[in-house]
Amino acid sequence: MLKRAPAPPAILHPIQIVTRRTGVSADVLRVWEKRYAVVTPVRSPSGRRLYSDADIERLRLLVQATRTGRPIGQVATLPTPAILTLLEEEAPTPRPPRHRRQADIPLVASPTADDVVEGCLEAIGDFDALALDLQLRRAIVALSADDFLDAVVVPLVDHLRIRVLDGSLRRPHGHLAHAVLRRVLDDVVATATAPLHSRDLVVAPLGAHAHELDALIVAAAAAADGWRVTYVGAGVPAEDVAEMVQLLGARVLVLSQAASSGDRVIPRELRRLRALLPARIELLVVATTADVQRAALAETGATPIVGLGMLRTRLRALSGDASAKNGTTDRASRRPRIRARR
After folding, report:
1. Which residue, 89, 222, 248, 316, is the most exposed by fewest CB within 10 angstroms?
2. Which pTM was predicted?
3. Helix H or strand E segment including 229
4. E strands, 16-87, in order
């Protein structure tokens, strides 16, 4: 009896080959794997991720699906044959007019956060700043401040960054969305900021690669929670930030960090700020993940904050502590409401 020859070993490919064949950047691929488990690469003895031909084909189909306008989270769990079927059945639809009047933009009576995010992504894809602005301002009216930031703005910014990285949106689309989001968040900070008798808080980006939108989201969350917020733009020297904190008599400086823990600029800036500020100033460092500068934080006494929920908890604790010392009531019951500017 003849013995069957063993099957040849599967060919595995390094990440450089995958990015070249699929058009997905290494950064986006890592995000997709971590967040959506789109593929499960094997590890080489040295720890490098290796991908099969089937992995590459699946990623290629997922990229095509996202370019039809579907969020990656909607298709990531589908089996590969289902994605292929979906693409084959996808019929091209006429694009809506690029410049639409306000009355032409669908108005949902009670939009969910997901409805708003989808509408915003459609407006960005159409390169329609007016539609994007209106979607966001209608959401401000329909949703609470926390839901607007947590369930609309944060996911929208995440979607935007991923789509620009994977090529499903072009860089000009990202610039347009950034300009509109910045304007809307500026208005949120301005309209939600508490009256003059409230305690001051300063927000500044931390690090040369910090994203301004992240810092503005933090500023909006603090303002909606009852603090009088001053936002410091990107690129302001540590000396100027520290002087602003002291001139305002602020009690808290919140730093928005976007870079990874390997960034050598961040520890230097953090230590510089701590040295320039009185010890009574509370220093908070907000990051989108737990990837923060632990050694520098420990040395400076700064408090690491991951996400807006933890930020609100800390700010409310600080507000309560100050109220107790001053013999006043907690300001949380007098939190301002965001008003939409027209």
Report:
1. 89
2. 0.63
3. strand 228-231
4. 42-43, 49-51
For residue 139, the tally of other CB atoms under 10 A from its CB is 26
Task: Round the CA-based radius of gyration of the chain to a whole number and report it.
Answer: 24
Number of domains comprising the chain? 3
Q: What angle do CA 139, 145, 147 make, to 5 degrees?
A: 70
Tokens 């949902």 belong to 108
State the chain's mean pLDDT as an integer.
80
Q: Is 269 exposed, middle or buried (0-12, 13-18, 19+ CB in 10 A)?
A: buried
CB 228 within 8 A of CB 195: yes
- Are the beta carbons of 173 and 241 closer than 8 angstroms? no
pLDDT tens digits for 128-178? 998 899 999 889 888 888 999 999 999 999 889 888 887 888 889 999 999
Residue 161 lies in a domain: yes
Tokens for 191? Answer: 């309209």
Rounded Cα–Cα distance for residues 174 and 180 (Å): 10
- Give the integer Cα–Cα distance in Å for 261 and 293: 5
**Dist CA 73 CA 117 (whole Å):** 13
